[in-house]
Design a protein that fits this description.
- The chain is mostly helical and 109 residues long.
- The protein has 5 helices and no strands.
- Helix 2 runs antiparallel to helix 5, helix 3 (53-67) packs antiparallel against helix 4 (76-85) and helix 3 packs across helix 5 (89-103).
- Helix content is 71%, strand content 0%.
Length: 109
């Protein structure tokens, strides 16, 4: 065997290992921490519908990103959230009430 053949074999093995590791990480479930649990509990108490816990947490974090974006109108994040989720104004307000102190507390300041 030549040195080139060994390098190609090692590179292929390394690539396969990285792909396998990445696939395992992609399938691993997200574990909610205490603040996630409190956020979800509030949504449940207020009867805000969501498709999954992971999706609700992702939506809240995305809401905060849009809400804190410079030069963006303050209403835009809630408007898109309500339209995309099909929520009422009340459901959207409850979601924001839970998301802001949990995931974007700087909005309060």
């Amino acid at each position: 065997m030549t040195c080139t053949t060994l390098r190609r074999g090692a590179a292929a093995s390394m690539a396969a290992l990285l792909v396998a590791t990445g696939a395992g990480m992609a399938v691993a479930p997200a574990h909610a921490d205490e603040k996630d649990d409190q956020f979800l509990e509030y949504l449940d108490q207020k009867r805000v519908p969501y498709s999954s816990k992971t999706e609700a947490i992702r939506l809240a974090k995305d809401f905060c990103l849009v809400r804190t974006r410079q030069n963006a109108p303050k209403w835009r994040a809630a408007y898109h959230l309500a339209n995309d989720q099909g929520w009422t104004e009340t459901e959207t307000a409850h979601f924001a009430e839970a998301a802001i102190p949990t995931y974007c507390p700087r909005v309060w300041k």
